Amino acid sequence: MLKINNLKVSAGGETLLKGVDLDVQTGSVHAIMGPNGSGKSTLAKVVAGDPSYEVSQGNILYEVGFKNRDLLSMDISDRAKEGVFMSFQYPVEIPGLNNLVFLRTAFNSLCEHHGTPPMDEEKFKTLAQSKAKELGISADFLSRNLNEGFSGGEKKQNEALQLLLFFPRLAILDETDSGLDVDSIQKVARGIRQFRGKDNALVLITHYSRLLELVQPDYVHILIDGKIQKQGDYSLVEKIEKQGYDWISKKIH
Amino acid sequence: MIGFPKKYTNISEYAQFKRKEDVLPVNVQQFLKSQLKWHEEIGFPHKKMEEWRHFPFQKILKAGYVFSEFPDEKEQNVTSSVYPNSVVLKIQNGIPILPKKQEGFSVFNWKDMLKGKDFLPPKIKGFIFQSLQNKRKGLCPLNNALALNGLIIIVEKKLKRPLEIQYSYTSMENPLADNLRNFIFLKENTEAQIMESFYGSDSKDSSVLLNMQTDAYIEEKARLEFICLDQGQEKDTFFNHFFCEMSPEARANLFTLSLQSGTGRFLTHLFQKEKSISEIRGLSLLGGGRHAEHQVTAEHLGEEGMSHQFYQSLLFQSARHVFKGMIRIKKSAQKTETQQLNRNLILGERALAVSAPELDIKADDVKAHHGSSTSSLEENRSLLFYLQSRGIKTSQALNLLLSSLIKETFSPLSLNARQVLEPLIQDHLQFLQPSFIKSSSDLSSEDFK
Q1: Any bridge partners for residue B57, and if so which?
Q2: Exposed, middle or buried: residue B85 (CB in 10 Å: 0-12, 13-18, 19+)?
Q3: Nearest CA in chain B to A105
Q4: Which residues make Cβ contacts (< 8 Å) with residue A126, sequence separation at least 6?
């Protein structure tokens, strides 16, 4: 579904990704781990289309209708319409923008792209409330302004709600578990399990093993200093948990 | 700065002619003369005056405004009302067209008072006389000297219908300068929603400068919602001065919406007695080379008063916005709570925002906050990116973002006021946005397809 080839990315004159290769197949769950500043979030944002970054080399191929498209040439909103979703590490607050209005606008943009009729206010509200209930989060979220006054956990729950509402083909969750308590992690994990399927793919970016224990990724990649240095299965997570990243860093240097 | 009709050699002659025209009583003539003298003493505003430093005087001079002569009294056009179910008070070409007697309020022409007619209760006359004694600066004395028309509105009950005052100028051959004088009086425990709209000139070849002065008095426990809507044309200029005395426990909700006039200058000054509460807000959505200035003062005279000032501007192309906010708390105004915030969003390469919030606090037991921020969309890029990453196309994302930013400005207004203002604001945003999209290198006009 997604193939990243020798991707080099910089921002503010600094090279952040130094040749990343990654192959994400439909139906798979990948975890990307690594120390702070290794480039994990950068990778997620470049795939989502954040214009703050400059791609100096490499490409990203994204499968759309059995054809591989050059993802980097696609507009931000077009990527989302073709099923690319990034859950933000720090979701933004937009005071004055009602959460339900935002969700419905985004949902209907996706509907329009796929040729399905937009959903009216009442129907969408019912849908959003049912998804909130599935996740075990309060429907009160919907009447508030987008992330305004939300705790860190609530913001991440709102991202998980979007995952279930928009049901993308490729979901990249950027440190979805950071700052969450046990209950919040359970709710997010619930959303991920509901989403996971043979027709989509998931990339989890995280420092911690807590969420990965609940989700059990198929592949684990360790990103250090802008490059994927090690790949493996879930057993790699357990090794990182016990030994940290030093043993990998030592091998590089 | 402003010309006068050719047959008069100077402004004094012009003013003298105006005073005699309606055979005004001697004492009134003397008052008008004294106001002109005061104006001549202080002179027209100029750039060296701190409060006028950023004002585009050249633009006004270039327009070549001339003081009005004798306005045509015929009702010439019909401007549809903005407020549903409102009572409309029209002032066309400077002449009030007053409705028949309505329930809950009375309205008179200021001219009738100048002519010496005695129809007002002593309390209200006293308020008017007191307002006229104030030695104000800027264009207020000139307004007092030359304004022969205006409205005196007395609210006697809680009004069931909003009042809508419309100022429009039609079929003018030359650029015109006009002065209007209004007084608004709310009796104890009454409530009124009043919206005044400046439509400017309907003529492509001409323009109008309206110099407007309003004094309002809100008695105890009365509530006033007052909205000033500037919908003039690009060539028009609107000077609006609004002074309001608030009795104990009075409430005032004021809102100014600056959209269209080429140049607008809005001065708002509240005098708040004990336990009075005010919300003073404004929103400027400006494009082209438009210029708007807001000078706002909340002056606390008595204890336990509250005031909240919040002014926002979105500036496209080379528009300019100046905010000068003052919170003044006298020593007698202990336990005052007050906030002041000015927020500006620069959306044009040559747009400019000037912000000068000020506090002058003499009491020692108060809560006072003030702040100002000016940012560009570049600095809010992460917000736009978030919306776009959810499949929302750029133009729609921009609209959502800008709409949400400004919603806060008018949130304390009544529901029907918000229902009137929101579509106006949305339409105007839609009108201004393409100029931003064209000039921004990030955004693609493909998104508008």
Answers
A1: none
A2: exposed
A3: B392
A4: none
Closest by CA position to A49, among listed A198, A196, A170: A170
Torsion on CA atoms B28, B31, B36, B42, rounded to nearest 10: -160
Cβ contact A51–B444 (<8 Å): no
Residue A48 touches partner B, C-beta closer than 8 Å: yes
Which of B394, B403, B405 is closest, CB to CB, to A77? B394
Q: In what order do the strands lie in the sheet with A219-224?
A: A84-87, A170-174, A201-205, A29-33, A219-224, A227-232
pLDDT at A221: 95
A166 touches chain B (CB under 8 A): yes
Report the distance separating Cα B318 and Cα A205, nearest Å.
44
Q: What angle do CA A19, A20, A24 make, to 5 degrees?
A: 155
> Are the beta carbons of A240 and A34 closer than 8 angstroms?
no
For residue B170 the two structure tokens come to 């039609």
pLDDT digits (tens, 9 = 90+) for A4-62: 999 999 998 899 999 999 999 999 999 999 988 899 999 999 999 999 999 999 999 99
ipTM comes to 0.95
CB B218 within 8 A of CB B192: no
Chain-chain contact of B383 with A94 (C-beta, under 8 angstroms): yes
**How many cross-chain Cβ pairs, A to B, lie less than 8 Å apart?**
81
What is the distance, to the nearest Å, from the Cα of residue A97 to the centroid of all Cα atoms in its chain?
Answer: 23
Give the pairing type, strands B95-97 and B87-92. Answer: antiparallel
Q: What's the DSSP call for residue B259? A: -
The pairing of beta strand B237-246 with beta strand B208-218? parallel
Over residues B308-329, the pLDDT tens digits come to 999 999 999 999 999 999 999 9
pLDDT band at B407 (very low <50, low <70, confident <90, very high): confident
Dihedral pair phi/psi, residue A86, rounded to 5°? -115, 125
Name the residue among A95, A96, A109 with its Cβ closest to that of B392. Answer: A109
A237 Cβ under 8 Å from any chain B Cβ = no
Name the E strands within B231-290: 237-246, 251-258, 263-272, 277-286
Q: In chain A, which residue's Cα lies nearest the Cα of B386?
A: A92
Q: What is the mean pLDDT of residues B390-399?
A: 91
Contact indicator for A151, A181 with CB cutoff of 8 Å:
no
Model confidence at B441: pLDDT above 70: no
CA pair distance B150, A125, nearest whole angstrom:
50
Give the CA count within 13 Å in the CB-facing half-sphere of B220: 2
A13: left (phi over 0), alpha (psi -120 to 50) or beta: left
Token digits for A222?
């360790």
CB contact (8 A) between residue A49 and residue B388: yes
The enclosing H or E element of B316 equals: none
Amino acid at A59: N
Task: State the nearest Cα–Cα gap between B331 and chain A, in angstroms.
Answer: 36
Q: What's residue A169's pLDDT?
A: 95
For B194, other C-beta atoms within 10 Å of its C-beta total: 26
Chain A touched by B407 (CB under 8 Å) = yes
Residue B447 has pLDDT above 60, yes or no: no
